[in-house]
Write a structure and sequence with these properties.
26-stranded mixed sheet; about 750 residues
């Protein structure tokens, strides 16, 4: 019952509107509480007019109702109110920063999202004007030069009529251009030697209608874009060439960096409807998305370390666009105090098309055929239904349950060619159809009757069925495959929280998750109708078993100290079942080809374990000092079973420490300090002929400074920052040290 869309047009934020009443007439009759409808409503004497509505908030106690009646009987007098005038506020924060980087400048930009050198502008401006009638005008934003960071938001609002929201935002994301390194062969690291960044932005406008007693309507449009170039994890080969093997590459490692341009646009139409009637809440949301992505991609394939030249690369022209319409309908109602019901339906339709032109060019080994597709079409329909209930007619015991059913159909069609020059030589038609059905049940239990204790249990069951048909007609890779997959998921979690004393609480939980998938390959044929010998149709099952334990202890031994300790154990086990199959292995030393037979069956293919520890402490030993410290450690391992040279285990740790503090020097000056330290030693176990992979680094950053209140409405800030990064696997190539100065002044009017 405030100024923004008051229920029943009844406002209680000022005396004039409160005594005037709303659409049901006057609710407060000064001097006569017995006849005042407001008392009847809060005492739950009028059906469908109970205030607050059941389930929205707790009912007033008899003492509170008695106090309200006494106030009305004494004349319903309000505190003195001054003349109702416009309220205008404005604040602006100009800022300036300077950053100097010694070392790898591009990696610093990637880590912190800031460019070296000077940057400045308006970090934030804010303007708001409120009229006595409730109309509001609000504008805010930021403008930072050199960082290409701009934002502007506008709001025009009139109570019981509508609103307009509009805005624009753009910022720049930075990416490094560094590849990998091979310490054994002393290859790398390599760099593209150019800046990689993306400009990301959006613009939007929404029109809203909030007329009393009518649905709340919102109609909007949004435009999103990404434009620029980023790095890619699809590394190219780097190595030497053996002249005795006709220029063939030997001893190569996939460590040469690559990048990809992105030119992406999205247009979104929005329509939302929200309405409440007799305790029911109806909500409908529609989104229509027009997506377009066009790019030319230059992908190095082979870099000759002997000659220092790029001898082979891939040129890829891509075009993709789609339209997707999605609508969500939801209904909910608090039936009685102990029963809440909700349900919904979601529908989505996608129509897309793509074209690809990919050519492989070799500088020293000659031109090669290229692959292109004139048209790839995609259609997808999705339907999702759900129903939910929360009930608690029992003292201290509540139950929530939900059902959800999903059906999805996807159709794909493609026309591709392998060509010499511009002449198609190997045309092919591709098809891929997928039908997916998912049924999910959830249930949750809460028991709070035991003093200072909450016990809970949650369960989620899911049954998923997928039928996939795919084939290639023509070309030199003809095949036909028809596969069904049935997945059963069981996810259980239980635990408790106990707080026997105000100075301590303890919580613990255990989760078990089992995902079992069975594959049935009804058809798997290669060219000419012969049976396909292998991947992936020989896989018959795949299971994942997860167990998690989480413990939390919160201590408040004294008023100025709070400590939270957390421990989490996550264990995963992966099992795969296969058909019997054989393969052939060539020994280059003896020149002998051997046949190896695998009996198949269910085997343990891998497991992973993670131990996560964290400690958070908040200190306020003196009124002038505030300190917050967080320390975390992640100790993890993932490996295949049995351990082989081809699939090598990863093992190690990552830990971080963060400290933030503020000291009030005097009434006008505060000293501030923050420190972040992170270290990782998470590597792949070493084999003599394997590329060392992993995350090994040490990173720290510290900022220190002060804020000064020059006047009640003027606040200045000056900070110094030091940042350092070391990654020993790259021999200093990725290391950097940076110094920064940040300054700003905030003025409020």
């Amino acid at each position: 019952h405030g100024p923004e869309k008051p229920k029943g047009r009844f406002r209680l934020d000022n005396s004039a509107d409160a005594l005037k009443g709303g659409e049901n007439g006057a609710a407060i009759l000064p001097g006569d509480s017995a006849r005042s409808p407001l008392i009847h409503y809060v005492a739950y004497l009028v059906e469908d007019m109970e205030m607050p509505p059941p389930g929205k908030a707790e009912r007033l106690t008899p003492e509170q109702i008695g106090l309200l009646r006494a106030w009305i009987d004494q004349g319903a007098k309000w505190p003195l109110e001054g003349p109702r005038t416009n309220i205008t506020s404005f604040s602006v924060t100009p800022s300036l920063r300077f950053i100097e980087v010694s070392g790898n400048e591009r990696l610093f930009r990637d880590h912190y999202g800031m460019n070296e050198g000077f940057a400045g502008g308006i970090e934030r401006f804010f303007y708001e004007e409120k009229l006595p009638s409730g109309e509001r005008i609000q504008a805010e934003g930021r403008i930072i030069g050199n960082g290409d960071d701009y934002a502007f938001r506008l709001l025009l609002e009139k109570p019981e009529f509508g609103f307009v929201r509009a805005g624009f935002q753009q910022y720049r994301e930075y990416y490094h251009d560094i590849g990998g390194v091979d310490q054994f062969s002393q290859l790398g690291p390599y760099s593209l030697n150019r800046d990689l960044d993306l400009d990301v932005g959006k613009a939007w406008i929404d029109f809203g209608l909030t007329l009393p007693d009518l649905p709340r309507l919102t109609l909007g449009y949004e435009y999103q874009f990404r434009d620029g170039e980023k790095n890619s994890l699809a590394f190219g080969d780097a190595g030497s060439v053996d002249p005795g093997m006709a220029g063939s590459a030997v001893d190569t490692r996939k460590i040469f960096p690559t990048s990809k341009p992105i030119e992406e646009e999205v247009h979104i139409l929005k329509f939302d409807l929200l309405h409440e009637h007799r305790g029911y809440t109806f909500e409908n949301n529609f989104r229509g998305e027009f997506y377009d992505n066009r790019s030319d991609r230059f992908h190095p394939i082979y870099f000759n370390t002997s000659s220092g030249t790029l001898e082979k690369y891939l040129f890829n022209q891509q075009q993709y666009d789609h339209f997707q319409g999605a609508n969500t309908l939801m209904v909910q109602k608090q039936v009685v105090d102990w029963l809440f019901l909700s349900g919904g339906y979601f529908f989505s339709r996608l129509d897309g098309s793509a074209a690809v032109n990919m050519s492989s060019v070799g500088i020293t080994v000659g031109d090669e055929p290229f692959w292109f597709s004139r048209s790839i079409l995609l259609e997808q329909d999705s339907h999702v239904f759900n129903a939910n209930a929360k009930l608690g007619p029992w003292d201290g015991f509540t139950v929530n349950a939900g059902l959800q059913n999903q059906w999805q159909r996807q159709k794909g069609f493609g026309d591709v060619d392998i060509a010499e020059g511009l002449t198609p030589t190997d045309p092919a038609l591709l098809h891929s159809d997928i039908d997916k059905r998912v049924f999910e049940e959830t249930v949750g239990l809460r028991y709070t009757k035991i003093p200072a204790t909450v016990i809970f249990a949650d369960a989620r069951l899911q049954q998923e069925s997928i039928g996939q048909y795919e084939d290639e007609i023509g070309g030199h890779h003809e095949f036909t495959r028809d596969t069904d997959a049935d997945t059963h998921l069981q996810d259980y979690k239980t635990g408790f929280t106990i707080s026997p004393w105000t100075k301590a609480s303890f919580s613990a939980s255990y989760r078990h998750r089992l995902r079992e998938t069975e594959f049935a390959n009804a058809l798997d044929l290669s060219f000419g109708g012969s049976a396909n010998p292998g991947y992936p149709a020989f896989i018959r099952s795949r299971d994942t078993i997860t167990d998690e334990i989480e413990l939390r202890l919160v201590l408040r031994p004294v008023r100025w100290l709070k400590t939270t300790l957390n421990y989490q154990l996550a264990s995963n086990e992966y099992r795969t079942g296969t058909d019997p199959f054989d393969t052939f292995v060539f020994d280059p030393n003896s020149g002998i080809v051997s046949q190896i037979f695998f009996p198949g069956g269910a085997i343990l293919t891998g497991n992973s374990d993670a131990h996560i520890y964290s400690l958070n402490t908040t200190w306020t030993p003196w009124r002038r000092l505030y300190l917050n410290t967080t320390v975390s450690l992640q100790d993890t391992r993932i490996n295949s079973t049995p351990d082989t040279a081809s699939v090598v285990a990863y093992e190690g740790y990552v830990w971080t420490a963060m400290v933030a503090g503020t000291y009030i020097l005097n009434q006008k000056t505060d000293l501030i300090l923050s420190y972040l330290y992170s270290k990782a030693d998470y590597e792949q176990e070493q084999h003599a002929d394997r590329l060392p992979l992993g995350i090994v680094f040490e990173r720290q950053g510290i900022t220190a400074g002060l804020t000064r209140r020059f006047a009640p409405n003027i606040l200045g800030s000056l900070q110094y920052g030091f940042f350092e990064y070391n990654e020993p696997l790259f021999g200093g190539f990725r290391d950097y040290t940076a110094h920064a100065i940040f300054s700003s002044v905030t003025m409020n009017f």
